[in-house]
Amino acid sequence: MSVSPITCHILDTTVGRPAANVLCELTYLSSPSSSAIATAYTNADGRVKEWSLANPSDASSEWITSELRPGLYKVRFNTLQYFSNMQRETFFPYVDIVFQIPESPDAHYHIPLLLSNYGYSTYRGS
Known about the structure:
Keywords: Hydrolase, Purine metabolism. This protein has one helix at 79-85; strands at residues 6-12, 17-18, 23-28, 36-41, 47-48, 52-53, 71-78, 95-101, 109-116, 119-122. The chain is mostly beta strands.
């Protein structure tokens, strides 16, 4: 099991703990069909280290597990279900983070999300 070149981490700042079991969807926006290419749920530590291909029979999307393509990407964090499971309200049913991979990609891109019911923050992680 190898770590994907795109990883995520969610911390729920209202309780000071990782946000586990959050559905995350990865979309490659620089393609004609901008549908999710991969999905994952955050683990107990609030992390996504590897993705499941949205369409395993589509060999053109297998690169997400090994080598990145330059272009625009989006990670959608489905936060409504997370907060509903915690019996808490939220203003944001999901959080979309759009980022750009340059022509000469680095080996790894980490997308952290600091999340609360009524706000969120992100930055380029390492």
